[in-house]
Amino acid sequence: MAAALTGTSMMNVRAADMDNESELSGGSELDFTNVISVANLALIHQEGNLNQVDGRQYGLLNSLSVLQSGHRNILSVVQAGDENSVISRQQGDANIAGLIQVGFENSIYLDQLGFGNKAGITQYGIQNSASVNEIGFFHDVSIYQSGNGLHTAVTVKGASTKTIVTQID
Predict the structure, then answer these.
(1) Are 114 and 138 in contact (CB under 8 A)?
(2) Does residue 30 fall inside a structural domain?
(3) Is residue 104 within 8 Å of 83, Cβ to Cβ?
(4) What is the pLDDT of residues 102-114, one digit of tens each?
(5) Cβ proximity of 74 and 96 under 8 Å
(6) Which end of the chain is more exposed for a tag (fewer CB within 10 A), N or C?
(7) Which CA distances in Å does 112 have to 55, 64, 79, 117, 125?
(8) How many domains does the chain fold into?
């Protein structure tokens, strides 16, 4: 009889935990769409071919670090907010990086090593910074910046490369 009472009381406790008066909300943290994200960190390491990173970060002090080793990998990043950063390296051939930042005090550091890699960087805002290092052949770099204090550094080691930098203040 004691076992039957214990089973019954446990079922009542579990039911009480699930009622509408419970301390836990029935919603999810994903329901908070109007909240600004702060200090998120994403570290991604991919090895192999045909991998893709599609990163989206909004808010303050966000950081995305990506290492892709292989061929025909794609890196696509959008960051909007203040003091965000992207640090990425692509090793291999025919890799593509597309990076967009909107906001203040943002920075991008990109290394591409191999053959036939492409990088496209767009930044809007004040005191943004972009640094691209490419080692190899047949690389294509395009950087567009708009705002104040525009800092761009491109280092290319190799042959048959194309670099376009446009800055508008």
Answers:
(1) no
(2) no
(3) yes
(4) 998 899 999 999 9
(5) yes
(6) N
(7) 18, 16, 20, 7, 25
(8) 1
Task: Look at residue 7 and tell me if it is in a domain.
Answer: no
Is residue 57 over pLDDT 90?
yes
Of the chain, the percentage scoring pLDDT greater than 90 comes to 66
141 lies in which domain range?
Answer: 38-168
Pairing of strands 74-82, 96-104: parallel
In terms of Cβ atoms closer than 10 Å to its own Cβ (0-12, 13-18, 19+), residue 130 is buried
Instruction: Write down the pTM of the prediction.
Output: 0.77
